């Protein structure tokens, strides 16, 4: 067998050599009559053409092999496939969020978010970027409260229709009607398959990655399709923090207790002419002025108090106006009975002139609802989500507490200096009725309740206002206004 196969191979090889010789002889006869110059030109033309053809073939081959994938990927990067929201179901959910408002122009969005950023504007941007919604105006959006510029919240609530991972036949998603056949797209297929365990979109983690550091989603909750964050709220819980200084807390409590119950608060708000509100009655469910218990982390010796307030609803600037009157009472510029006078519309038919309390210490602390169960992350990752939230808030606390520490250090150093150190030997200070045994802090604090040259310092929870010849609120009206 081996000899036979070798002989066959030799036979084939010999035949191949014969064919080559025949082709060479035919070619030789063809070019035998050509001149030397013609042969050289033919040879050069042949070599040039062959090289060009080979280069073209190799380049085309390499390019097609190496660049097809790159071209496809580049096309995909340049022209991404548009997101098709119709492939997903939607559900109505609520979000609980916290934000620190001093960097924002209120909660409600406005037309110029670049110049006047808002909380709602950032929320809409994050929701759009994550493909949770397609249009803020068409997602059934509602909010519990419309906080003002500079006001913060630790428990604001919003609700909206949002993209979901749940199947269309789930009882938790919103029904969708097909435009083609006017039939419900929630139909189940005839083929029965085993139910799959589907995890919902990680709403908290996804949105918090896109939101600024001072806006955080805390929790979310599935709610009924007709749920409205504003109208379904049982009560709002506000807190207003302030430093005691020389304020008389007992007088402030006396005045605050007069707010309890249902009253006409038109003299404790800012009238919005565009809304044409004709009902100014609001109900205060609970209030108190209490010492802030957890003060070990504070970097000052000042005592902090909090005005704790719960009500079914509030008018525009109502809490800040209430707090402004309490500050006047605490400074003994007004009697606690001024609250009764201002709540009596017959005695005080128009709002007197006074300055609102600062917005910085005000916080919408919580919003309460019936039958809303908050989720603080997906079941498989909830503890990790909560841990990240806590660490993030801790980082922000650390930054602001460090800044506060620097101010407190300088404040305490200055406040502890005796006034004697500012007086040189033999120097006389005239027209300064003070005790030089005092510290600078004691001097500054005493000026709050000691008017000089008919000037009074008005506490607003922020910067103090200097008012000349303070006029009591009840005296701002002529007899013709008082019945």
Automatic annotation (TrEMBL):
PANTHER family: PSEUDOURIDYLATE SYNTHASE (PTHR11142), TRNA PSEUDOURIDINE(38_39) SYNTHASE (PTHR11142:SF5)
Record-annotated Pseudouridine synthase I TruA alpha/beta domain positions: 255-370
Pfam families recorded: PseudoU_synth_1 (PF01416)
Name of the protein in question: 20789_t:CDS:1
Superkingdom field: Eukaryota
Organism: Cetraspora pellucida
GO cellular component terms, semicolon-separated: cytoplasm; nucleus
Family per record: Belongs to the tRNA pseudouridine synthase TruA family.
CDD domains named among the record's database cross-references: PseudoU_synth_ScPus3 (cd02569)
InterPro entries reported for this sequence: PsdUridine_synth_cat_dom_sf, PsdUridine_synth_TruA, PsdUridine_synth_TruA_a/b_dom, PsdUridine_synth_TruA_C, Pus3-like, TruA/RsuA/RluB/E/F_N
GO molecular function: pseudouridine synthase activity; RNA binding
GO biological-process terms attached to the record: mRNA pseudouridine synthesis; tRNA pseudouridine synthesis
Keywords for this protein: Isomerase, tRNA processing
Keyword Flavoprotein: no
């Amino acid at each position: 067998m081996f000899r036979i196969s070798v002989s066959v191979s030799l036979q084939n090889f010999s035949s191949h050599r014969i064919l080559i010789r025949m082709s060479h002889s035919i070619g030789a006869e063809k070019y035998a009559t050509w001149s030397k110059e013609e042969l050289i030109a033919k040879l050069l033309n042949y070599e040039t053409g062959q090289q060009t053809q080979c280069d073209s073939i190799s380049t085309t081959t390499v390019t097609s092999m190496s660049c097809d994938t790159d071209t496809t990927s580049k096309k995909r990067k340049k022209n991404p496939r548009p997101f098709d929201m119709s492939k997903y179901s939607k559900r109505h959910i609520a979000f609980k969020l916290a934000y620190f408002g001093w960097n924002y122009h209120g909660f409600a969005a406005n037309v110029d978010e670049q110049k006047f950023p808002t909380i709602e504007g950032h929320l809409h941007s994050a929701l759009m970027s994550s493909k949770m919604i397609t249009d803020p105006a068409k997602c059934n959006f509602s909010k519990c409260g419309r906080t003002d510029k500079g006001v913060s919240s630790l428990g604001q609530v919003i609700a909206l229709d949002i993209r979901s991972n749940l199947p269309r036949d789930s009882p938790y998603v919103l029904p969708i009607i097909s435009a083609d056949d006017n039939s419900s797209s929630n139909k189940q297929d005839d083929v029965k398959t085993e139910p799959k365990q589907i995890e919902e979109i990680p709403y908290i983690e996804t949105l918090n990655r896109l939101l600024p550091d001072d806006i955080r989603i805390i929790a979310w909750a599935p709610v009924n399709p007709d749920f409205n964050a504003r109208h379904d709220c049982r009560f709002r819980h506000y807190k207003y923090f302030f430093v005691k200084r020389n304020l008389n807390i007992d007088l402030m409590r006396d005045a605050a207790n007069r707010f309890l119950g249902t009253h006409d608060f038109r003299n404790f708000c800012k009238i919005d002419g565009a809304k044409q509100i004709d009902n100014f009655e609001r109900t205060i469910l609970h209030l108190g002025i209490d010492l802030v218990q957890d003060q070990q982390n504070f970097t000052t010796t000042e005592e902090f108090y909090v005005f704790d307030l719960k009500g079914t609803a509030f008018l525009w600037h109502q809490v800040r106006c209430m707090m402004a009157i309490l500050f006047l009472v605490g400074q003994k510029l007004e009697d606690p009975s001024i609250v009764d006078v201002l709540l009596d519309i017959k005695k005080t038919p128009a709002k007197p002139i006074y300055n609102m309390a600062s917005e910085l210490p005000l916080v919408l602390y919580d919003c309460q609802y019936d039958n809303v169960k908050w989720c603080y992350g997906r079941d498989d990752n909830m503890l990790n989500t909560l841990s990240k939230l806590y660490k993030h808030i801790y980082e922000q606390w650390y930054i602001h507490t460090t800044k506060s520490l620097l101010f407190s250090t300088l404040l305490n150093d200055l406040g502890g200096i005796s006034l004697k150190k500012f007086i040189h030997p033999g120097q006389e200070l005239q027209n300064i009725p003070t005790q030089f045994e005092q510290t600078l802090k004691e001097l500054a604090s005493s000026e709050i309740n000691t008017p000089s040259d008919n000037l009074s310092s008005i506490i607003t929870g922020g910067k103090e206002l200097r008012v000349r010849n303070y006029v009591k609120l009840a005296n701002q009206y002529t007899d013709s206004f008082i019945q």
